[in-house]
């Protein structure tokens, strides 16, 4: 059957791809573009491991069709560091070992970055509610929240 | 599903033409937070998916006649960011914001929440008490329908072939009006309502309730309006006796099922409790504007 030709922006670069009508953005990112940083946990929008930004909004890439993103801007974990320069959240997650197996980490980082862009000074409650759609099955939430709040504090101080 | 067609029209007329002209199962794609899960699970195998997010009218919130018209595909997050809407209809906005996580809020729409036809849809009791009107477009043109007439049963709507919900209209508010929505779930968030209660009140200068509406979710096949509960509040300042009477009427109206989320008895009791608490919040809000 006919594939759909899509032109979009991914991490600032214009990209073109062909996808099936039912193929998700997550599958396109991983299978067509080789951007495997976004993970598939549940595939049903419950776990947040595939969190990406779509036109500036945090979404689950598994709940977006590839065909939907024509002309839109997608940001993934691969675009978070600028070259060798990690984002402050990435540095902090390393410093505080705010991850165990790492499957949830790309989604958590994308979601946390979106939080800090919207609210540079979140309370712990606000951070926990904002990140409630990002599940960590290693039960590492405490370190994740601490890393997000410390990064927020560092970024405000700069 | 192998030969599903995807279309993203840019006008309502084009969307209606696609929906009316297609054979087989046809689905409207707004936020996709239900549809993509159903597609993946092969619960649905549509021949055509019509993505309506390229239609400006369905993606905008506009002021109209002192009220607001919300495009059916506007994501929940955008309602929460709209200060004027939030001020006028805090209950509708808080109900919509209860739907799913931050990620889901980035996509899930109020039109989708309505048309999905879930008895437990959080935004719908709030829309009922707001007396929202639904803008529908179809092959025969446009019509405005009271929100209560859209959903006819779990997963079922009154929309004819080719018809689509374009917008939700929330009317102008009288002075001293307030709305609220509360639901019971067994955890802090990210769950499906066991019971939901929406309340809308208008008070006079002295704080006496002159108009009230009470709607309950997840206690019947569709959202229930409970006029007997509302009547118990009118003419009162929501004293305990009035709230007791309202809560009893709310519980009495429930026709719930037993399921894994709650028993009939529990839902009946909690419906009164939720309605009572929501009424207090709505009363406070009404007194502040």
Q: What would you note in describing this structure?
A:
The complex is a heterodimer of chains A (158) and B (289). Chain A is of the alpha+beta class and 158 residues long. Chain A has 2 domains: 4-79, Roll (Ubiquitin-like (UB roll)); 88-157, DNA polymerase, domain 1, CATH 1.10.150.120. Chain A has 5 helices and 5 strands; from the N terminus they run E-E-H-E-E-E-H-H-H-H. Chain A has a 5-stranded mixed beta sheet with strand order 2-1-5-3-4, sandwiched between helices. In chain A, a hairpin with a 2-residue loop joins strand 1 (4-10) and strand 2 (13-19). In chain A, helix 2 (88-95) crosses helix 5 (141-157). The longest helix of chain A is centred in the last third of the chain and has 17 residues, at 141-157. The mean pLDDT of chain A is 96. The relative contact order of chain B is 0.12. The model of chain B has no long low-confidence stretch (mean pLDDT 96). Chain B has 3 domains: 5-51, Uridine Diphospho-n-acetylenolpyruvylglucosamine Reductase, domain 2 (2-Layer Sandwich), CATH 3.30.43.10; 56-170, Uridine Diphospho-n-acetylenolpyruvylglucosamine Reductase, domain 3 (2-Layer Sandwich); 177-287, 2-Layer Sandwich (Enolase-like, domain 1). Chain B has a 5-stranded antiparallel beta sheet. Chain B has 289 residues and is of the alpha+beta class. Chains A and B meet through strand 4 and helix 3 of A and helix 2 and helix 6 of B.
What's the arrangement of secondary structure elements?
The complex is a heterodimer of chains A (158) and B (289).
Chain A: E1 4-10, E2 13-19, H1 25-32, E3 51-54, E4 57-60, E5 73-75, H2 88-95, H3 105-118, H4 124-130, H5 141-157
Parallel strand pairs in A: 1-5
Antiparallel strand pairs in A: 1-2, 3-4, 3-5
Chain B: E1 5-7, H1 12-21, E2 26-29, H2 35-40, E3 48-51, E4 61-64, E5 67-71, H3 76-81, H4 83-88, H5 90-97, H6 102-105, H7 110-115, H8 123-129, E6 133-138, E7 141-146, E8 151-153, E9 156-157, E10 164-170, E11 177-184, E12 195-203, E13 209-217, E14 224-225, H9 227-233, H10 240-253, H11 264-287
Parallel strand pairs in B: 1-3, 2-3
Antiparallel strand pairs in B: 4-5, 5-10, 6-7, 6-10, 8-9, 11-12, 12-13, 13-14
Helix pairs in contact in B: 5-8, 9-10, 10-11
């Amino acid at each position: 059957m006919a594939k759909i030709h899509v032109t979009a922006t991914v991490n600032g670069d214009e990209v073109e791809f062909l996808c099936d009508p039912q193929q998700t953005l997550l599958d396109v990112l991983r299978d067509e573009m080789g951007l495997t940083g976004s993970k598939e946990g549940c595939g049903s929008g419950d776990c947040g491991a595939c969190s990406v930004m779509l036109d500036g909004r945090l979404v689950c890439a598994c709940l977006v069709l590839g065909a939907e993103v024509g002309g839109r801007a997608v940001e993934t974990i691969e675009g978070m560091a600028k070259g060798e320069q990690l984002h402050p959240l990435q540095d902090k997650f390393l410093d505080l070992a705010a991850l165990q197996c790492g499957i949830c980490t790309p989604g958590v980082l994308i979601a946390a970055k979106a939080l800090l862009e919207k609210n540079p000074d979140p309370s712990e409650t606000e951070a926990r509610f904002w990140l409630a759609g990002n599940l960590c099955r290693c039960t590492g939430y405490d370190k994740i929240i601490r890393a997000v709040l410390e990064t927020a504090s560092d970024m405000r101080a700069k | 599903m192998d030969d599903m067609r995807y279309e993203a029209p840019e006008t309502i007329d084009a969307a209606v033409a696609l929906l009316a002209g297609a054979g087989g199962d046809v689905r409207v794609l707004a936020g996709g937070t239900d549809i993509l899960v159903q597609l993946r699970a092969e619960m649905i195998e549509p021949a055509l998916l019509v993505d309506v997010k390229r239609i400006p009218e369905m993606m905008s919130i506009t002021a109209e006649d002192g009220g607001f018209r919300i495009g059916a595909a506007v994501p929940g997050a955008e309602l929460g960011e709209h200060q004027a809407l939030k001020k006028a209809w805090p209950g509708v906005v808080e109900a919509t914001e209860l739907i799913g996580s931050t990620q889901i809020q980035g996509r899930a729409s109020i039109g989708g929440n309505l048309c999905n036809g879930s008895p437990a849809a959080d935004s719908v009791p709030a829309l009922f008490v707001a007396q929202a009107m639904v803008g529908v477009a179809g092959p025969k043109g446009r019509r405005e329908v009271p929100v209560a007439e859209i959903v006819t049963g779990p997963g079922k709507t009154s929309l004819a072939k080719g018809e689509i919900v374009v917008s939700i209209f929330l009317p102008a508010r009288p002075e001293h009006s307030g709305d609220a929505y509360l639901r019971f779930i067994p955890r802090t968030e990210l769950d499906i309502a066991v019971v939901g209660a929406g309340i809308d009140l208008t008070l006079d200068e002295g704080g006496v309730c002159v108009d009230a509406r009470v709607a309950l979710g997840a206690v019947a096949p569709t959202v229930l309006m409970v006029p007997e509960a509302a009547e118990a509040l009118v003419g009162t300042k929501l004293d305990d006796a009035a709230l007791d009477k309202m809560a009893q009427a709310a519980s009495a109206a429930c026709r719930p099922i037993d399921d894994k989320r709650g028993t009939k008895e529990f839902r009946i009791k909690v419906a009164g409790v939720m309605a009572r608490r929501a009424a207090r919040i709505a009363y406070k809000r009404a007194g502040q504007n």
